[in-house]
Design a protein that fits this description.
Largest interface: A-C, 110 and 111 residues
Oligomer: heterotrimer
CATH topology of the largest domain in chain C: MetI-like fold
Helix content of chain B: 40-55%
Strand order of the largest sheet of chain C: 1-2
CATH architecture of the largest domain in chain B: 3-Layer(aba) Sandwich
Distance between the termini of chain B: 39 Å
Strand content of chain B: 5-15%
Helix content of chain C: over 70%
Number of domains of chain C: 2
Order of helices and strands of chain C: HHEEHHHHHHHHHHHHH
Radius of gyration of chain C: 25 Å
Shape of chain C: globular
Chains: A mainly alpha (300), B alpha/beta (451), C mainly alpha (314)
């Protein structure tokens, strides 16, 4: 993890005088105390998720009985949800949107970021200032006209508006990736140019591989954002079979929740199906997630 | 569920009017005029949840094999419908709440159906007046009604007995009697409600209470909002006041959320409620899930003692710019024809008989269909309570009112719904809340009529 | 770090024949093209359109009708708009300080248990991965006054939990509790910032006899102030625009009544006006008001940060 670690100053080893035993016990006690405290907070944090999974496996009348372990364990709830709604389609749609959108934004943002980082041309910094300024724009301002644009193009009620905007890069990721590119020594690129590479090859073969970690961070973040987005499918899709998972779950809540057929165990099962892949993705890509967030904080 | 006609049939494009007529005659559609219809037909907002729906759809497909029918699954909400209509490529037929229809019609989102009605021979006179009123704006018909859900009183007789009262004592024309009944039967155990006496079903049934009190929410011509009339304020105060017995709306809702509404241990069977006005489809639910529950049905009455009910339902309409209005028209005509209704009801009756439960009827909104269904298919089941229930529902069909068609339906409804909620939450008094709602509703109406 | 790195890529001034310069400029523009086009199509043009629409009455079904300042005048007298603004402000004012304080507290705790920190940090972060719709659905029941686990837990301590989802006075606090559950991201940022504080500063402080609290005030806080302000600003902007969870829980077909006033947040109301009532003109005006509000609040925060934030070497 060369790039990120380069920015963290190495800790200096403290030298202490020999410790007295009482002090040592005191320190251990205080550490134990903090561990217990943290463990308690962790339980609080994870309790709702535990309840989610547990409740999704209960019978309808038991959902709110307050027991942590379902008895009987209704694996059939997950099967029933599959039958009650086009959950498979929803998952597929979410996957398509997530992958297409994440790949699109990663590549396009990387290109744009590289443009701002490496090349020298007039107006570059002013333009970049403009990029920064647009970060402050609330989505609500452009939401309606963008909807009208897609409407004109006849692409409402398709998946296209949900991801195609990502083909043009995203200011947040451009900002992030530019930081990484700026950390690369210019000689590398000059050497590549001398070897006869054109600008595109320079970017593709030199810059991208070197910032691989950052790219994965961007991909992972955008995938998460697309996987969980509710607003775009809400305003663009009316054909149930085209819904993404979050939109589908909203439908399930409306249909099976209060005022509907009151089959909360199905709603909770679907919610679990929505959440688990993301958590699984996290465990595989943990370092990218954590690093990505940490970096935005320190470099922001 | 997507239904597609065979591709090669679509390619063939052979018109078979004679064959179709013969088919129609053999299916008993003597009065229908068979239209020429083919091509794609997208229907939005109509799920196919049961045999009442699927049988009718099948009949349409038999009549018009050249039409490629595409149904989008599941009911949709207003926002989805608007998106679809605004998209420039709307579906051919939409299925929506009758009360919302005039809003879309006024904005020009729906096509007038006069031509369609003539061509397809739809007899608008067959539909119940309360069903036709919301789909008619300025004398033009914009929708074909389907279903007529009315409201009746559902009573938990076990609770009645406990209170030493009889069904006659619970006369909803006497609001003091309602209050007394509510007081007596509401049971609270240490902060938790264990039974609620009389649930006024707010905010949904606010129009019912206002009407019972002699007022109405919107003028008949649909131009003036009357939300802050003294009758409305009084009605709201009374209905909200019923919650006080349980300690307010909060405890009541928390309690209501725990009801097993659609299950065998529903709030009637479990003695959790005394009585409440409810849409008639719940009678069906009760007969299926708890046929032995101690229940009785009675008509709701206004304060003058007349039978009163509140009608809602759906309607079919054709969006402006739909690509295949002929097929759309044929579809709507077929779906709401009395023969189609009858066939669907026959199927349901058969299924019910097979499973040993009672068929309590289907309220189609089409008078002719209703007469045949209830005359021929619905038999006394021996379960007195439910038989009486069926009688009540029929009795009440024509005493039902609906909110007059107006072009700001959604906003008006939002205005009084929010007002009722504000009062229920204790944020405002009834007079204040309704005054605010009146302002909002009237300005929405004015703007809508201006366009 | 950033300054040095920037120098690396920009080390040499643009030398060589002007043809090379022009080629480089052209290539630069080529790389930036996607953003430039996208910015034009999806940002610049929509911004202008949105501003234009805010002066019209438009329901998509018919052409826009210019009405001058009417939308803005209506906003001034619309009681629901004021309610929406108030709801969003209240929620933001309650949530942001709490979230930063709590995240900082937890990050400090993480610091104390150096080796196990990674595990706990993961535990805190995982909830924030839950999709917003799922959070809404989940907390509708976690917060339920009679059967939800929150009130059940409170009951263990003898506390009679309030009506988080049924009592209008407690709906926003309930939403704050829900949002605090997703603190993970903030904790990660602050924890990283804490780890970045040079140890020798603590050494120096200890040698001078500083107590724990003084250490915190004079060493820790200033050194992480950059991250703290970043988190404050980002969380404020996000809190003012919250939509998914609130809409899932209290709106759509789920008009539960209790939330119809108390949970009417600004973007929810905007969405309603735009896509449920088709008042696109009015909704556009609302969007611009939101923009101005966010701009002002962020500028104020930036100005304050300039006074209080300590940047090493700047």
């Amino acid at each position: 993890m060369a790039l990120a670690e380069a920015s963290v100053p190495r800790r200096q080893v403290a030298t202490y005088a020999v410790e007295r035993p009482e002090r040592r016990v005191g320190r251990m006690a205080s550490r134990l105390f903090f561990l217990v405290l943290l463990a308690g907070v962790t339980v609080v944090f994870l309790a709702p998720l535990a309840w989610l999974v547990s409740a999704s496996l209960k019978t309808r009348s038991q959902v709110f009985n307050g027991e942590w372990v379902p008895d009987p364990v209704m694996w059939s709830n997950y099967v029933d949800v599959w039958r009650a709604a086009p959950v498979l389609s929803w998952l597929q749609n979410s996957l398509v949107v997530g992958l297409l959108g994440a790949v699109a934004v990663t590549l396009s943002s990387a290109a744009v970021a590289f443009g701002f980082a490496y090349f020298r041309f007039r107006g570059r910094d002013v333009l970049f200032g403009l990029v920064l300024a647009t970060m402050m724009l609330p989505g609500a301002v452009t939401m309606i006209p963008v909807y009208l644009i897609w409407n004109e193009l006849g692409l409402v009620n398709t998946l296209v508006p949900l991801w195609a905007g990502n083909l043009f890069g995203s200011v947040f990721y451009v900002f992030l990736l530019r930081q990484f590119y700026l950390g690369l020594p210019r000689d590398l690129f000059d050497a590549a140019r001398i070897d006869g590479a054109n600008y595109l090859q320079m970017w593709w073969r030199v810059a991208l591989p070197l910032t691989r970690t950052a790219l994965i961070v961007v991909f992972v973040f955008e995938f998460k954002a697309l996987w969980t987005d509710l607003l775009k499918p809400l305003i663009y899709l009316y054909d149930t079979a085209l819904f993404t998972m979050p939109r589908g779950i909203k439908t399930l809540i409306d249909r099976f929740g209060q005022g509907g057929e009151m089959q909360w165990e199905l709603v909770l099962a679907a919610t679990t199906v929505l959440t688990v892949p993301l958590i699984a993705l996290f465990f595989f890509a943990q370092r990218y997630f954590i690093e990505g967030i940490a970096t935005t904080g320190t470099k922001g | 569920m997507d239904r597609h006609a065979d591709d090669h049939e679509k390619g063939a494009r052979v018109r078979r009017p004679l064959a179709a007529l013969l088919l129609a005659a053999s299916l008993g559609l003597a009065t229908a005029q068979q239209m020429e219809a083919s091509g794609a037909l997208r229907v939005l907002g109509f799920g196919v949840p049961d045999e009442i729906a699927s049988v009718r759809v099948e009949r349409f497909e038999e009549l018009y094999p050249d039409v490629e029918l595409q149904l989008t699954e599941g009911a949709i909400d207003q926002q989805q419908l608007l998106t679809a209509i605004a998209s420039g490529n709307p579906p051919e037929v939409v299925y929506l709440n009758r009360d919302d229809l005039s809003t879309y019609a006024r904005r020009g989102a729906l096509q007038p159906l006069d031509q369609c009605v003539e061509q397809a021979g739809i007899d608008m006179g067959q539909f119940r007046p309360a069903a036709v009123q919301p789909v008619t704006l300025d004398g033009t018909v914009y929708g074909v009604p389907e279903f007529n859900n009315i409201v009746l009183l559902i009573v938990n007789t076990a609770a009645l007995e406990e209170a030493g009262m009889s069904l006659e004592d619970l006369d909803t024309s006497d609001w003091d009697a309602i209050a007394r009944f509510n007081e007596q039967l509401t049971a609270v155990d240490g902060g938790n409600v264990t039974r609620f006496g009389f649930d006024p079903k707010l905010p949904e049934f606010f129009p019912l209470w206002v009407r019972a009190n002699g007022g109405q929410l919107v003028s008949d011509d649909g131009r003036t909002a009357l939300l802050d009339s003294p009758e409305a304020v009084e009605a709201l105060e009374f209905a909200v006041g019923l919650h006080e017995a349980a300690g307010g709306r909060g405890p009541f809702i928390a309690f209501r959320d725990t009801w097993d509404f659609f299950g065998a241990n529903n709030q009637v069977a479990a003695n959790q409620v005394g009585a409440w006005p409810m849409e008639q489809w719940y009678v069906n639910v009760l007969v299926e899930s708890s046929p032995d529950a101690p229940v009785a049905f009675a008509p709701f009455r206004d304060r003058r003692g007349n039978v009163l009910s509140f009608a809602t339902g759906s309607a079919w309409a054709i969006p402006t710019g739909a690509a295949n209005p002929d097929a759309a028209c044929a579809f709507m005509a077929a779906m709401t024809h009395q023969d189609t209704w009858y066939a669907a009801a026959q199927e349901r009756a058969r299924l019910r008989a097979e499973s040993g439960t009672t068929y309590t009827g289907t309220y189609t909104g089409n008078l002719a269909a209703d007469e045949r269904i209830f005359g021929e298919l619905v038999q006394p089941s021996g379960n007195e309570a439910f038989d009486r229930g069926v009688e009540v529902i029929l009795e009440v069909q024509d005493a039902a009112f609906s909110i007059p068609a107006n072009p700001a339906g959604a906003e008006v409804r939002q205005a009084w719904t929010d007002a009722v909620n504000r009062v229920l939450n204790g944020e405002q008094s009834a007079a204040e809340a309704l005054a605010q709602a009146q302002q909002e509703a009237q300005s929405a109406l004015d703007e809508a009529w201006e366009r | 770090m950033g300054a040095v790195a920037q120098g690396a890529l920009r080390a040499r001034p643009a030398a060589g024949p002007s043809g090379l310069r022009r080629a480089e400029a052209r290539a630069g523009w080529a790389f930036i093209a996607p953003w430039a086009v996208g910015c034009l199509v999806f940002t610049a043009v929509p911004m202008v359109t949105s501003l234009y629409l805010s002066f019209t009455e438009y329901d998509v079904l018919r052409p826009p009708r210019p009405v001058g300042l009417e939308n803005y005048r209506d906003m001034l007298v619309d009681p629901r708009l004021r309610l929406a603004l108030w709801n969003s402000f209240f929620y933001t004012a309650l949530y942001v300080p709490l979230s930063v304080a709590l995240a900082l507290g937890l990050a400090l705790l993480l610091e104390r248990v150096t080796r196990a920190a990674g595990f706990f940090r993961t535990a805190f972060y995982v909830p924030s991965l839950t999709p917003t719709v799922a959070v809404g659905a989940l907390f509708l029941w976690v917060l339920n006054p009679s059967v939800g686990i929150l009130n059940r837990a409170l009951a263990l301590f003898g506390v009679d939990g309030p009506g988080w989802t049924t009592d209008p006075a407690w709906i926003k606090p309930g939403l704050v509790v829900m949002s605090l559950w997703s603190l993970g991201g903030t904790i990660v940022i602050l924890y990283a910032a804490l780890k970045n504080v040079p140890r020798d500063l603590y050494e120096a402080a200890r040698i001078e006899g500083a107590s724990g609290w003084a250490e915190f005030r004079h060493v820790t806080l200033p050194m992480i102030s950059g991250a703290v302000f970043f988190v404050l600003i980002v969380n404020t902007i996000a809190a003012l625009q919250v939509f998914d969870e609130v809409y899932t829980m209290y709106f759509g077909q789920m008009d539960s009544g209790a939330g119809s006033s108390a949970a009417l947040f600004y973007v929810v109301y905007l969405f309603r006006q735009a896509f449920e009532f088709l008042n696109m003109g009015y909704a556009s005006a609302m969007a611009w008001l939101l923009f101005v509000v966010i701009l002002v609040i962020t500028l104020v925060q930036l100005r304050v940060s300039r006074r209080w934030v300590y940047y090493e070497g700047r």
